[in-house]
Amino acid sequence: MASHPVQVIAVTGGKGGVGKSNVSVNLGIALSEMGRRVVILDADLGLANIDILLGISSNKTIENVLQGECDLREVMVKGPGGIKIVPASSGTQKLSQLNPMEHAGLIQAFSDIGDDIDVLIIDTAAGISDTVLSFVRASQEVLVVVTDEPTSITDAYAQIKLLNRDYGLFRFRVVANMVKSPQDGMALFAKLTKVTDRFLDVALQYVGAVPQDDAVKRAVQRQKAVIEAYPRSKAATSFRALAKKVDSWPLPSSPRGHLEFFVDRLVDQVGA
After folding, report:
1. 261 pLDDT exceeds 60?
2. Which pLDDT value is given to residue 49?
3. For residues 147 and 202, what is the distance between their CA atoms, to the nearest angstrom?
């Protein structure tokens, strides 16, 4: 298993459509530009979309790894900016309902590549399914993506509440996505903290905001990451600023490799 530190970040948010995959991909590319070796796991195991988002085709997916037909290195595809992507299998219901052995096998496969990466970004599915919760609970950092919509704030609060109340998670990082201004991003964070401070014992930390930018829409239409297609856009600039903050996050001290820590925690959960 991995012997060097690997930062494991779950990008999540209770509601669908808040831009988790866009945040995952562009943050990953920005970190790669800084010299970090980044792998993104498309952990929306039933409705995968990162390969579609980036116009990447893959002959093999996580399903092939689960079936023992290949190892993880054979599944990983090269993405923009030097990142590597582990695609899931879109529309495969079986992958959204992994049994404990399959789930453990999936994560065990990651231990074999630990020495080759610095950052593992987990792009989770929407909602609070067991699979989503397992990935989030096992990660070192939880990055919650919210937008200025009542349903987004409500669903993010529900997810944070569940993870805190039932699983003891305390620290959550927050990104305000698709906001009109930096001030709106801070105001959105204030809305979320107003309810969490009142009802939960958690620490929310504001990472920053990604502006509403037509360049993002144009990039999606071109099946490219905005940081690649429009590197000087407001959104691309904000993703690079986010990456600098993420790169400054300390790795937790552990006598074991940090990807091994992630593997152990997840295997313990699914085996319980």
Report:
1. yes
2. 76
3. 20
Q: Is residue 1 domain-resident? A: no
Amino acid at site 123: D
Q: Report residue 129: phi and psi, to 5°.
A: -70, 165
The CATH number of residue 157's host domain is 3.40.50.300
Tokens representing residue 168 in the block: 């003891």
> Is pLDDT at 14 greater than 60 in this prediction?
yes
What does each C-alpha distance from 104 to 68, 70, 134, 237 come to in angstroms?
Answer: 13, 16, 11, 37
Q: Extract long-range pairs of 68-71: CB within 8 Å, 24+ residues apart.
A: 71/109, 71/112
pLDDT per position as a tens digit, 38-81: 999 888 766 667 877 888 877 887 778 777 788 888 889 999 99
* 211 lies in some domain: yes
pTM score: 0.89
Q: ∠79-231-152 over CA atoms, to 5°?
A: 75
Report how many domains make up the chain.
1
